Amino acid sequence: MSVRISRLLIVALFTACAATGALAAGKTKSSAKSTKAAALPSLVWRGDYATARGVVDDVAKAWEKSGKGRIEIEPFNTASGLDAVAHGLADVAGSARGSAGGAETDLQFMPVAYDALVMITHPSNPTGNLTVKQLHDIYFGKITNWKDVGGKDAPINLYAVASPGDGVEYSLRRLIFGRGNQPVAAPRLYVNTAKLEEAVTLDPNALGVTTLSGVANNGKVKMVSVNGTRPSLATVTDGSYTLYTPLYLVTNANSPKAAVIQQFMEFLHTDTVKALARQHQLVPYSDAPELAANDTARREKILAEIGIKMQVEPTPAPPVLAAPGATYASASANAPTSERALEAKQAVESRKAAAAAGETHKVVKGETLSTIAQKYSVTVAQLKDWNHLSSDTVKLDQVLQVSAN
Predict the structure, then answer these.
(1) Cis peptide before 164 (omega within 30 of 0)
(2) What is the pLDDT of residues 24-41, one digit of tens each?
(3) Under 8 Å between Cβ of 98 and 105
(4) Cβ neighbour number for residue 225 with a 10 Å cutoff
(5) For residue 248, pLDDT beyond 60
C-alpha cells in the first residue's frame, strides 16, 4: 500500500470518528431537549378554528417559551372540543359561543377575548355592505339573489357550518334570529370555518360567516361591512360593529390537571397574551367590560332592526374571571370536601378578612393583577380603574385598592 493511500485512509478514519462523535453529541443534545420538553406539564386543547387561530396557537408558543408547560393543539370544531373536555379526552376546549345548557352546564366557560363575526364573499363580488335585516333575510331564505342587495344578477350561494357544532355559526344566528339553533337556508354545510373559507375562495357568488381573527390578512376573501361599518379591532372595541362574540376557553372542574389549567388561565390575562390577542384583531375580554355590560341592549337593537321581539332565552351571565366565590359555590354544591372546594373557600375567607381590614391588598412575590382580581372576586379592569393603573404590571409590596369604596 502506498504512503499516499495510507494517509488518505487515516484521514478518512479520523473524519468518520469525528462525525460519529458529533452525531452522538447531537443525539444527546436532542435527547436532553426531548426529556426537558417531556418533563413540562402538558395540556391538550381541542375546539373550533376561530379560537385556535385567534388565541391558542401563539399563546401556546408563549406558554412553552415561559417554561410553564406545553399545549397540544387539536383544532376541529366547537362540539368536538366541548365533548372531549366533558369526557376527559382534552383539558381545555375553545368555543366561539357560551354554554348551550344541557350536558354543557357542568363545564366552566371562561371568556378571554372578543372577535368579530365577519361575513365573507369572493373578492370579485361587487357587494361590499349588507344590513342586518338583509343578512337575516338571506339566512332565512327570503333573499336569494345578489341583485336584491345591490349586487349583480346572480344567486347567493350561502355557505354555513352546522350549528351548534360550530360556535361562530351559533353566535351569528343567536344575534340575527334570537336563538343559536335557528335552521337556515344554507344547502352547503361544512365541518368548520376553515373549510368554509376555502370554499368561498372558489365561488364568486358565495357568502358565509367566519371571524375577523381568521381572515383579517386573507386576501383570497372579501370582508363585507354590516350596516355600513367595517369589522376591525377598533370598531369591535367601541361597539360600532355590532356582530361580535366572546371567545371562550372551557374547562372541567373535575380535571386531574386543575392546578396546571388554573395557571394557564391566569397566564391568559398577562400583558404578553393581551398583546398577542390584539395582533390577531381580538379585544381582550378584561379590557372591555362595557361590551359585556351592553350585551343585552346590543342584541335588542339588532333584533329591533330586523323586526323581531327579543325572546326570553336562558343566557348565562358573563362569568367573573375565576371568581373564588362562584368557584366555591359551584364546587361545594358538587363536592364540599374536595380540594378545589376547600381552596375556593379559603380564597373567599381571605377576601372577607382583607375587606374587613380596609379593602386593600399588599402585593407579595409571585402575584399578578389577574391572581389578585381572582382572589377578591373582581375584574382586572376594576383593579386598574380603582388604582389608576395603565398596565397589568404590579410591584412587590405595592398596596392596591380592592374595592370601589
Answers:
(1) yes
(2) 444 444 444 444 445 678
(3) no
(4) 17
(5) yes
